[in-house]
Records
---
Amino acid sequence: MSIRKYIAYLHTVETGSITRTASELGYTQSAVSKMIADLESEWGVRLLTRGRSGIELTSEGETLLPSIRAVVKEYNDLHFAVSELHGLRSGLLRVGCFTSMSTSVLPNVLRGFHEKYPNIRLQLFSGEYGDVSAWLRRGSIDCGFLSLPVSSDLEAKFLLRDSFVAILPEGHPMAQEPRYPVSRLAVDDFVKLNEQPDCELDGFLDGLPQKPHIAYETNSDFALMTMVECGLGVSIVHDLILHPRHHRVVRLPLDITQFRDVGIAVRRDSVPSSITQLFVDYVLSCQSQLDNYAELG
């Protein structure tokens, strides 16, 4: 049986769309539908259903999915091994990441990886923690950067520690001080970043004895920094988002220590592909560089 049918079916499951699968794999929609129909006919089971929310796995499709993933993984590993024999090391790697990581230290890591393995094509998917975790579970990405700890169905390795810092307008009375006291949050106008529920920032702010005086709210990191730069208020952000420095704001450590640990994660229930393991090992080899990420800005 042609491996193309397995790949088309798996890609459809991972993307949730026959249209997108056809576009990304270079087929027509009817060709993808026929390959999946051929599998269903040959195996005598229904693999997918089409609902209002898109493509959904049947119970039979769910049962067979791990075996199909294993076949496609073995094929990709074989392709990579053959390319290694020719000194190429080629293939595709899909990486998920949250914004402050993808706009700060990650590009330097990707550049180094590309210089070492120029024939490996990389797709970067940017989203929030929940998005990256869901993409990993679905198989839409091969590995992802997440805040630690991760859920039990994922496995992650520590990379760096990212502190909360205060950002102030350049003319703020505290701009020349060594630290920003969190008690001032009840006095200063505060620009709050609205992210997904239960994020680290909300937990930190909720635990303060004096609640911040929220004057503005936004769901954009970059809008938040521009608002602070214009003097609308102060804010607290992850240090990563400030590198490289694009905004004229004053960065101050807080007078209490608060941080998040960041790691690189894969699915726990499957062995990473050769290319994925190559990338994870490379990222871990950059750990000392990542620990000093402030110097990269």
---
Amino acid sequence: MDHKKPIVGLVLFVLGLLTLTAPPTAAAPTSGPVVNGAVENGPVENGAVVKGAAGAPGAQRARPSPKLFKGFAFDTCTAPPLSTMAAWHSASNYRAVGVYYGGRGRHCKTQPHLSKTWLRSVRNMGWRVLPLYVGSQPPCVIAKNKKGVRIGNDPVAQGRTEGRDAARRAAAHGILDGSPLYLDIEGYDLRDAKCKARTLDFIRSWNRTVRGRGYVTGFYSSADSGITHMEASRLAGVRDLPEAVWFARWRGGKPNLNKEPVFAPGAWYPNRRIHQYRGNVKERHGGHTLLIDRNLVDAPVARIG
């Protein structure tokens, strides 16, 4: 999550379910073997791995197979100093870090430590990286601090522009083709049909652009809004949906990748899920304290050049 924001509650979840056009069922997932940490069967189409899929017609750049990670990750608003990253790698069970590397909606716009050198350094320490891009937000976004960066009247053009920016900034940070870029969309009101349509147009356009530049499309949102919306769209056969999902559900604070009720067991499976199970907690490891969100990961991570 991009910090200092609310999580959408159970009431919105129930209301959002009323918008689903079909029950959450899916066929068994199609998948190939995992070889050297990379799924060998191409990208995901509408939440299911598709062998040989090529992404946007005529626009997809050939990309390496994704690099996968299974384990615990934290994300925090500002990339920590390298001394903190070294201490946490030695003293905690976290092995991946979420990094807010760009986007007009990013809360912590000043990132004094984040650079290509920082990313290479944490990679060399043994960290995996989850790049997050906080772009424009839904017109019906709930968080007050995101209302100033809402999607405009031409969501397709805006998604394309911000997708180009996401890919350009990723490349400038040394994040290579085949890496996931996770679009951060904060909680929004699923009862607003016009807002939902505009948001979906923006997300799909962003995805087409990012995939066309050789990256894997990821999507972060609350389980009760954005993820519910993506699952309803998947069931409706909508194309250009995210290839990996990062769902926030803090209730109970326990991680579980396989029992999230808002999407079917075969959706975004295997190796395409992150559960953010706790947020805004302070942890101290190796003498260094951070305010973080906790995540359980089975998903693509960045390839750092």
---
Amino acid sequence: MEISLHKKLENVIQVEWKAQELQKQFEKSGPLIKPLIRMFPKDIHLEKGSVPPSNYLIIQGSFDPPTLPHLDLLLKAIDLCLSKNPSEPIKVVILLSLSHVDKKLNVLDRSLLGYRVEMLEVLFNSSKLPYPITIGLSNVARYIDLIKAVQHFFNDIKKISFIMGMDVFKKVLDPIYYIKPLEDVFPKIFEADYFIAGREGVFSEDDFYFFVQDKLPDYLLEKVHFLSLPNQFKLINASQIRDYLSKKQVNEEVNVHPDVLEYLKKHNMYQTTPEWQATKIAIQTVIQLTLEAEKNQIAAIKILNHFLPIIKSDEILQQKLIKEYQLEEKKEIIERWNQLSKLIS
């Protein structure tokens, strides 16, 4: 059967397939990171001994959507690294997180991973950074575990530096997330450096140094660095940005690169119609069921070729899929998947 799935969903489904494959590997192997489909530039290969040891600048988050503050913080971290060591090789790793310390991801209020990868590609293609950029997938919630995962995956590490907001850094230093006393895990936590974002009037540089001097021994203060965001970047969270965009309210508070914004418009991102919500549920769940049945990606695409047009034209089915998903059930999709699997075989 010819694969006729609409072109704009093809790559999204490929990335979602890859993500769910990796999730199954994660369940067996513990905290790991894996690269997604692409690397930038295309000719960079992370093979042992192929390049000198590098400083890995890493941002982990949902990137739904990736924003101008993400890019600004990365550029500031690079500048600070080069000011201390101009000849040090730098590599950038952008990690889409599948696991949060205290959050559960839900496709009803999040984009499919495929869209997020494509938005990141648009952003970094537009930025033209002269450094290798790897878009990766992570199932690691705690940064103490992420250090180990990064060390396991990359072979040419000289230094690891994380870029994050103050809210995340406070969790890094929150004893509730560790079995041992915080002082006992400091050596592991600070195998990496930390670049912390703030802005005057919200969380200033003075606030930052007051916080770290209170929380950290003096010998660790050189491991933390403050990055100041320009005042034009309103520190609204990603859910607020998605809400603005879903209502087509684009203003100065939506700090999204023009090329990413164009992508969002092209794909009607963050719409909240039942049809779109049911489509996301179908893509995610059909891929999950196909992997569980140990069938290949082509089978999933064929099933979705049949299923998505049915969803588009059936409002009752849309509501049923959404309700079952909210109840963490998937009876209707399993029944449809079984029927369509027999049809395409």
---
Amino acid sequence: MIEKIKLDLFKLKSKKDLESIYHFFKKSTSKWFNNNQSPKDEFFYIRKCPLCNSDTSKEAFKIDGFSYHECSYCNSLYTKPHLRDGVLDALYSDGTYQVYQDNLVKKGKEIRKGVLEERKFFQIKKFINKNSDPALLDIGCGSGTFLDVCKQNGWNVEGVDPSPTVSQTVLENYNIKVHQGDFNKIKFNKTFDIITLWGVLEHISDPIATIKKAKELLNNDGMVIFEVPSADCFISEYLKKNNFSPTRYIESGRHNIFFSKKVISQFAEKFNLKIEYLETNGLDIQTILLEEFENETTDKIINIQDTLNDLLLGDHYRVFMRK
């Protein structure tokens, strides 16, 4: 398997940017709450677990007005009450989410494309059993850097993104077609060998429907690959015991579902998919500390995180499933 990357959070995102974007989104989502921090009914509703449909849960922790519940059946975490359909979409359509792209994602573009996106490509390549160039669809393609890495390596690529600005930008920058809109509502006239969802499923109201449609669009022996925040990680356990608001991982209002290893296995069984590989990639320790140290201490922190990742305790799961 491709060697894991030991990543320094602050080379990807500065402490100042992490804190400023956290406060920006906290202010942007404040309209969803009453003065006493209780959620407004016009923005929230009570729902069953979005991953297994169980109606039994218990509160695990509360952050910035959002209550995070642990499902008693699948062990995943989700916001309860949950944002109504369309509320989160407004953050993407009114330009709010673009601030995140500009302040965090674009500033780390060199590391993302030259290191992280390259690793994604080579990871996937090891699982592809095909002589000709594979067809890949990236859902929630954002800036298009991952698609471009795959394209440069000869793959046939297309993207999906809800933002019309993204669609135009990716076409102009990389000459790659992006289907603009809701993946679950778009009609495709072809199938794919690989479908990827990097940091997408935690944002949407019906991840099950998305996985189901992705499978339907896969060729035989094709792969669906997704990365999602973990409900089983070190920082989630830390949050259950210590009250604080992390500047990443939770991302209140945007990350509304956190996936357990148990529910990932349930997905595989439900859709008759085989889990080929699963790993965690996390930045739990630096997210908790949110302080920069001298090189020797930083190296130790990164090595601790590497051990947590080996134990599948990092804050994001990366999952490879084959049809």
